[in-house]
Amino acid sequence: MVYEGVFLNQAVTVKRLVPELAKDEYSRDVFMYEAKVAAQLDHPKIVRFVGVYWTTVSDIGSVFERMSGGELNEYLAAHYSELVWTRPARPSMEERPASASDVELPTKLQLAIDVAEALVLLHSFHPPIAHGNLSSKSVWLDGSGTAKLWNFRPVGVEALAHSMMDTSRSGTVTGTRTMDNGDICAFGQLLVELDWCEPAQSHLRPVETPADALVMSELIEPEFTSSCPPVVTQLARRCLVFSPYDRPTAIEIFYELRKLADSER
After folding, report:
1. What are phi and psi of 45, to 5 degrees?
2. Which end of the chain is more exposed for a tag (fewer CB within 10 A), N or C?
3. What is the DSSP letter of 98?
């Protein structure tokens, strides 16, 4: 349950544990463990954690900075006709018409770079942190159009919640190479969604494989619009390959997207 609120004269977003679940000790432990993870992450591309509140044992919630731009999926739906992957460099203030607005929508490429930058931080820990819940609903935008990650569901949090393990030694919640690569696959789907400005599932088609292929393979082939840069289509396909060990790392993704952005300037 998510609400808007005010804390110390500051606009905030409140994520409250559903009352029915709040009565269960295990669910409370999981919720608080997730809050503990969020409290350790300080980065401009991750929604800032403010704190935790509780009035009773069954009324608890986490408090985050207010993200006035809303969820990315809603943003894409509202601006699908205006958003582009890249745009020409803007004219200087002297060359720009007096009527031109200084406020413009972020490009799809910049939104992708913002998310990739957040993943670089998460996966740079040793062992890496797996977001575990990456989608357009877990990416929010602030008033300037910057995309930030939130709503973490670290892989393995349920197994760790009861012990409320001391994370100070490792720095935060940990994940294996396979776990953090779930984030990479999800990022590939996010690139498809950015391209179409609608849920990726409509543009991911199964690939026919030989009968002796891995039973659990569920291979998919993404479809893209004609305006999607080749670098992005290739990157998304690499993110969506079956083997997690064949997918690019977060830092590789960030580097490729950043290089594309620099080439468009």
Report:
1. -110, 20
2. C
3. T
